[in-house]
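Task 17 of the worksheet. Students: predict the tertiary structure of the chain below and write it out as C-alpha cells. Keep your answer in the requested format; marks are given for formatting as well as content.
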Amino acid sequence: MTVSDADLDAAADAIREGGLVVYPTETVYGLGADALDAAAVEAVFEAKSRDHDKPLSAAFPDASSAREHVRMSDTERAFADAFLPGPVTLVCEKRDSVPNVLTGGRVKVGVRVPDHDVALALLDRVAPITATSANVSGEPSVTNPADLDPAFREHVDAVLNAGETPGGTGSTVVDVERAEILREGANADAVRDWLAEHA
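Model answer:
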C-alpha cells in the first residue's frame, strides 16, 4: 500500500502544528509529534497514557542530522554508521534543544533512524519526531492501522497507512558508552557482537 506525497505533506503539516501522526516503521507503527515541542510531546504521553518517567526517543532522517540535537562520541558515531537506519535506538547525551519532558529529565535521549521508506519520507519533511509505538502503554504494538484502538485514534491527527509492517520485537535500545543493551529487540545479537568488539 503506497502513501502519497499529499498524505505525507499533510502529516508533516499536522506535526508542525503540534499534532500527532501514526507512521509505519520497519517494526511496528509509531506515534510521531514534534520532538522539540514540549506541548506536542506532552500530548504523546497523554495519548499513550504513558508515565512521564518512561522517556521517549526521537526519530531522525539520518545520524548526521541527529548530531544537531545530541552529542555523539567517536564510538557512538561508529555504531550509528554500522546500524542506522535500522531497528536500533542509540542512547546519546542530549543537547539543550531537546526538551526535558521527552527524556523524563534524563541527560540522554534515544536516537532512532527507522529503516522504512514512508517514515524516512516523513522525516525528510519534518524532524525530529517522537519515536514510540502507536498504542496505549501496556497494550500490544500495532502492525496494521486497522488495529488502532478507537480511543487512542481520537488523539491522532493523521495516519500514514502503508499496510502491514513486519512487526516482531521493537528496536534494540543500546547505550554504547556503557556497552550496555537497555532493551533487547531486533538485531540484538549483532549489537552485542559489535559492542564486544568496539566498546
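Marker's comment: The longest helix spans residues 5-16. The helical segments are 5-16, 38-48, 63-66, 74-83, 100-103, 117-125, 150-153, 188-198.
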